[in-house]
């Protein structure tokens, strides 16, 4: 696989975001933008590996762009701790810049793009679409995407995890993800307060009180959701609950042994386990 093109997207508030682009083989079937999960960056999609998800999609004829949100991967500064940002910044500033760069560099209209948002990337995509921060793309793919709206009736494990996440971030001034070896990117204090605030209030909102859930319910873009059977961070029930707010979502596909797949993947194995190549091939067929 050839080395990816290294691109930059400049946000309205002056942040430089980094993207890798791998060109598709043969006649181009489309342009796919991959958006990563929380506490990590786009490297797990594999833009620089020959046996990866990105390599598979590119071999099927798609140009693939892998973006890093601010404070993640090569999109630094800002850096969590000395710098700060919110979920709203990713919605209002980062994704519009990523979409513009993907469209311009690939010589295609924004409504021809396919946006694949994994977990956090999926939340950013649906929020931005619902609020009309970006043009409706050709297709949205939502792997393992949900919002933890907890409240008093929720599971003890999730309540304890979110409380600890908020407390540690308050003490340290950031979520020390790398020091805890829980991921590759620390998260900013305002982002964590906002995330854990959704759980406390049982509402998915912007800092200004805009209801992201209500906005998502207005999306008319076709949506393909799927989730791993072994994923505790976004269970099949979580994925179905979130997709239930999206009028044009297909039924959630459960990836696992009970459905003919080789493994019961967890949150990240959807894109990192070569045993799931048949899933990747099927996704390419659906995107085409």
Structure commentary:
The two termini are 21 Å apart. Helix 2 (87-106) crosses helix 3 (120-130). With 288 residues, the chain is an alpha/beta fold. It is built from 9 helices and 10 strands. It has an 8-stranded mixed sheet, with helices on both faces. Helix 7 links the parallel strand 9 and strand 10 (253-255). The model has no long low-confidence stretch (mean pLDDT 95). The chain has a single domain (5-147, 210-287), classed as Alpha/Beta hydrolase fold, catalytic domain (Rossmann fold), CATH 3.40.50. It has helices at residues 53-59, 87-106, 120-130, 156-172, 189-201, 212-216, 236-243, 269-272, 277-287, and strands at 5-10, 16-22, 30-35, 62-67, 113-117, 139-143, 174-175, 187-188, 223-228, 253-255.
